[in-house]
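User: Show me a protein chain along with its predicted structure.
Assistant: Here is one chain, sequence first, then structure tokens.
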Amino acid sequence: MHLSNAIIGIALSSSLPSLASAQTNVGCDATCPPLGYESDSSHLCPGNTVDASAASRLHDICHPTTTNNNNYNKLSFNSFKKRGHVTVIANYYSGCIAGRRESGVYAGIAQRIHDDTSGRVNFVTSLKGGADCSYWADMYQGDALSMGLNGGVKPSTMPLTGSFLYASVSPSKFKLTKRPHPTIYKDIVLDENLEVTYKSVGPCCGYATYWDCTDDIAKGLDGMLSDKIYEVYNKQMSEEEVVATTTTMATDPTTTSASSATVAATLNNEPKNNENQCQSATYSEWSSCSKTCGDGGIQFRHRANSNQAMETRPCPTEVTSTLPSCVEQCVIEFGNDFDLAIIASDLDSPRDLAFHPSPGVHLGSYSEGRVFHPDEGEELWVANGNNHSISIIASVGTEYQTTISRRDRGYYHYMNNITALAFNTVDNSPRNADQDTFNYFALCNDNINDYVGSKEPNYFMGPTLYDTDTVNKAGRKNTVNRLGEDCSNLPADQCFFLHADMLHEAPACIGIAHDPELETAYGAVYWAFDTTGDNSGNVGQLVKFDFSQPHGPGSMDHSIAQVRRYPEVKLYRDENHEHGHAGMVVHPTKRMLYIVNPGVGTVVAVHTDTGRYSRTAREEYPIFSNPLPSFEYSIYECVEQDEIFASGLVNPSGLALSLDGTRLFVAERGGRILALEVESGIVLQTIDLQSNGYKSIGGLTVSPTTGALYFVDMDTNRVVRVDAATDGECAYKSLVNTNFQSALESARTQVDSECGEDSFSLVRDYSCAVDGNIPNGTLFEQVHTDTGYASDNPDVQSMAGMDEAAALLASRTDCDYFSELNFDALLLGGYYCHVCLPRNHGSSCDAGGTCANVQWEGFTCDNEYYVHFDLYDDDREEESLFVSSKHYGTKYPENSSIKLSRGVTYRFTIQTTNLFRGTPGVPVSIGTIPVFSADTTSLAESSMKSLFSSIRGDNATNGPILLTVDDDTPECLYLTSPGTQSITLMIGGVSKCPSINIGNDGGSTGGWDLLPPDGDTVSPSSSAEHCVALLGGGYSALLFVSFLALSNF
């Protein structure tokens, strides 16, 4: 078990003011693993030990405070892995929830026992909910004083408190019931080896608010926790013979508390307090200029001072006047010359693209009736803005390359005008396998939730998360068919994405990037470009989304997530173009996020691990995903950024890093692509593609195997690769001044050694002070009061139990643009087909089809049929062809007929694999005459094979036949297969068609007898002529339909 892969939730029953004040027992069972989650290996239960990597990781501590310029100590749990030591961890949320009452009791216990054991028992509080950490820590200790704990002395050195927003220090996911909102283990006791010995929920569990759980109730924590701590402590002392005597009760309250120096010694990598330390008033000399050409960049000077460690200035004129101009050189991705290779075309306004980190885990070797070759080439995913889909280009650049399109059944919300996508590409992370989100991707929707223009926008929109792995996670429902059945077990069905999570705090998002950090339990951290930003619509903002614990397919629970806004990172979209893309990428080692800023022609560089909590975002941004305090929605300030890492760009769009991380590629929408040096920001080389017809470039990406650069062009609907010419030498010389780099490293070492880790930064505003606004219970309200997203019943947002009121939505017809009906309520109510939903009632039926909703599951289409085979009995080899409809709940046996309408495209999904005999399926076709026979070399079947060869390479046995019935379609068609009776397809209201009987003469025609409408038998030799006469056309008018491969919707 790994502590590093843990997530803490809260008890729903102790967080919503609207619940009854009486205590309930829901979610208060301390069983581990939690009931209903026994198979989840992520839970850290008694007997499990903290993972070594988690134990050694450093974490910020906000209390006790230090003289460090960041006001943070550093905590490592390895500090407590000592003979005779005990570690206690508790989790508390800010706000007026019931559990907060226990926090004061815990603080009093912590100081008393820590002092009583001479510092051998240490207490840690993990503060949740997004708030000022030191403020709440001080409040908890003040509560201890007001309760009369710790002998009337306010705790000062315990507990060690931090906003452990990363799950790596949280005791575990610890769900206690099958309810979708997890509750919390308040207290966890670890022994000297960091082995869990005890876990509990506190006495306030089950109470609704802070006021419902009184002081007397909360003080019950003292007895239940103190006894367990001393049980472990005394046993260790006895075994190690460290001390002779300890007490199991409180000691004299006049005992001297551990000094600040003792606490500092407990913490890692923190300098001892010294009045003269980190207070230097004298700056060093100015450094050399940072660049060797052009404007020379900047200079800096430094000092060991926590208030202002350095200053910068532009390189002075007397130096720049001596520097040469910066001239372009040659990078290997462009070469001395280049060619352009069209990889894919006929897309639909492609905005972005990315390589899948594990080709084949989504499509496998067979999907939607098509063969794929996962071991051949790479796999490229393309975001199509116009048709709200993802085009998957499999086996890129090989003879097996093919494209398939896929989208969400609820694309009008989850994939509405996709503008950017990003994969989690971090393989072999230390995370638990059942928590790791490797192979997930998130996408951005440039939409303010208007349901494809059919509804007044409500801005409840943001990034959507998907798990792409269907091969290794069969049964997970990462893809489903229309009816919501797991597509991994239905290789013939059309498949749709089923989202794993969605957050709603970045409407009109045009850029997204995955953060390759290794701190969180799930690795589902993404940065997004929110163009709505400051609510005026004029300035966008950077938003960080940590999905924390994705709710998974089939749920709507958003209670555990962290969303942070960074208003100081001002972002601007290109107002001259309605649709556009803004590239973003995180440098994996520098921890720097690069963002194109289209509206001002720059690239911004943001230090991802900086910024401090300022206040809740719920007041200024009242649209958020969940009302519970466990959903953190915060504003962060004092982030470190280089606002103009690169400038002078014209409508920049795509962004990508070279494989070695030394070059940053920036696309301009109009047709140029520039290669910048990461260390200096200087342009190394430029290529211009306007003359090639590419004047609307969107996203960029780099092949993870070859390093070649790929881009999409929105107007030509293409994916294009840049092929660098290899003639001649291609190299470049770094334009960074090495003297500047040496001075920078020396200054950082000096300042950090005297002032603490990360005290030195070239881009930090040392005068920045956050505007701390303390959240209160009134802010924990959801603007989605009429959709179920704010319901007190957690089952409303889960498949576990549905909102009964949702059934009433079926009859709603107030679908107008400005009507009161909130379309989000339809999704939450389990409607995939509804009269108010856009484009064919929201369904993805093929053209002309009508849907029927199956609540909370999916929908059916009246133009979709399934083709099967039945054995007459287990002892016979003969098979019977039949067709079924999930929409009508009807089975059509052989020799029956199905009526089809003109102007409709019908989908016949072939599922003819013989499960009884375990043999491959047999081919099926639709045509004007049945000419199949047992002889598989017959002309008709050979023709069928030739039609399939370009798509699948074998017969139509598992997959779709799409039949478009128009004015030219004959009145009578036949769905046939060798050796079986056919099923007649009657077109456009025709009343009769010639019937077909199969004989047993074994002739080359297969022994078919064609029966005209009057029942007279026609001999095989004249059957074709008679059929032609009946259908009113020549044999050349033969209609033969088989698989159609759709590369786009």
